[in-house]
Amino acid sequence: MQEPDLDRVDRKILGFLQEHGRASNLEVAAAAGLSPAQCHRRHRRLEEAGFIARYETRLDAARLDLHVVAFILVAMEKGHIRDMSKFTDVVTDLPEVLECYSITGDYDFVIKVIARDLKGLSQFLIDKLMRLPGVDGVRSSVCLDEFKCTSALPLPD
């Protein structure tokens, strides 16, 4: 299957959906300047081509009594390259972990975690993260304030 080229209308649809994930087809069609039928066809084509990875609802962490966000650098023991897949298998299943990336530099991974409070973060670090196979050390930074948090991607005009 050949991937469709994204035209201006496709980018309008994607941009609108990033900001208004619960919008009806009528609302998306109006924003894109299309008939509802045309919009529906394009929307489905974009989904089938993989431009839309998934739909999700963003919850308010503070309303759920989750007040601490931390970024944690993880160093793996040297020579434990086989433990990296064990590490990623476990860490991706931990509910406190919001994001996990393999990185270059002095550390092997950076993870973004959320916890109820500092005690909860400490328990996560000591009881879960530092006990994973191959973990040599961690360095954490607690987020003091959030200025931008989005999953919306920049779309070229």
The helix tally amounts to 5
Shape: elongated
The CATH topology assignment of the largest domain is Alpha-Beta Plaits
The CATH homologous superfamily of the largest domain corresponds to Lrp/AsnC effector binding domain/regulation of amino acid metabolism (RAM) domain
Parts with pLDDT < 50 across at least 5 consecutive residues: none
- Output the CATH class name of the largest domain: Alpha Beta
Number of domains: 2
| Estimated structural class | alpha+beta
Ends: how far apart? Answer: 25 Å
Query: In percent terms, what proportion of residues is strand?
Result: 15-25%
Q: Widest sheet: strand order? A: 2-3-1-4
Q: Overall mean pLDDT score?
A: 93
Question: What is the architecture of the largest domain at the second tier of CATH?
Answer: 2-Layer Sandwich
Q: What percent of residues adopt helix (DSSP H or I)?
A: 25-40%
